[in-house]
Amino acid sequence: MNFKNLFKSLYFWVLFSILAGIFLGLRSPEQALCLKPVADAFISLIRMVIGPIIFCTVVLGISGAGDIKKAGKVGAKALLYFEVVSTFALAIGLLVVNCLKPGKDFNADPKMLDLQSVSEYAVSAGSQNVTGSLLHLIPKTFMDAFSGSGDLIQILFLAILFGCALNALGEKGKPLHLLLEALSQVFFKIIHYLMKLAPLGAGSAIAYTVGKFGVHSLSPLISLMGCFYLACLVFIIGVLGPIAAMAGLNIFKFITFIKTELFTVLGTSSSESVLVPLMEKLEFLGCGRSIVRMVIPAGYSFNLDGTNIYLTMATLFIAQALNIHLSIGQQMSILGVALLTSKGASGVTGAGFITLAATLQVVPEIPVAGLALILGIDRFMSEARALTNVVGNGVATVVISKWENQLNLNPTFNKNHRASAKKAHE
Predict the structure, then answer these.
(1) Which of 53-62, 99-108, 275-284, 364-373 has the lowest mean pLDDT?
(2) What residues does each domain of the chain span?
(3) Are 133 and 343 within 8 A, CB to CB?
């Protein structure tokens, strides 16, 4: 083992920082709590440029596709894939929570639930009905989508319109295409600079989490966390594994290939923090650039596999904890509702909890106040959500590239995926 190269690698320092953060959180919780602004600052720095990056990459992906029908075909295949795989994720969540019943002996009293502690999430979820979600696609102004009041799905909507229009201009739009290409490279370079701070952000975030919630205080809900992590593992190996294999990709080699990104996500609980590195890794792997630039940004809004598993598991856990029996028909309705509410949840910590609140609001049998039962451990489950989302979007890009005959796996990946991962970072 070359220790000199090991100490230079980003994933080593991210992993080291996570372990150091856990140690600090356990030994000195008060000091660990002081690191929250550092973790928040790192996420804010990443979010600062995510909007422009998604806009540029989607526009370039559509305008660079040549034939607009081809771009539409790729988009349709991506959405079909997202819906099918999302259904599998939701079903696995239902299956695991029904088999293991983590909330069976909780016996919570609905009258003792603290509605005030989750009122903010309930209010945020209030607009997530079908009509509200459709209207939310449209930002108030073009620039509003990029401001603090906008979100990824609005940026995606604008990028699709802009890309189609730029594609239709043909040669007249070439100068603007080149300008956006150069601009995207600038934003990518900014991300490269910011990713050098990933160890600091990941270590601070995990230190705060452990310092605030501790380990012993989580004992009543450890079973839910264990079931959720198990469900994510079953989904990655049992669903994404065979899907990746059909595209000629070994899921375990792929996970090793993107280990640096996964360690960063583990620390920050945000899949947005690795958007650019993930796209670059997939291009190096052999996926078509136009496919990567369309599927990955779209997947961040429409292909949140980890969030889907979380939605069904958390909903049924609350029902079990409150001794509320749900029939198979009611559980199927929850699955259908979750297919809608999960769309548009960004990769930022807390979005999954808001989406869960939106799901509960259309399931009258379960009180929204039941969110208080899992509020304390949501932060711990967000890591698994984000990790599963990243792996799921990576596999989706490989599969769709295969469908479009734009997958040419880098020979170095199958020979030595560890070395190829290092080269991709360079």
Answers:
(1) 364-373
(2) 7-425
(3) yes
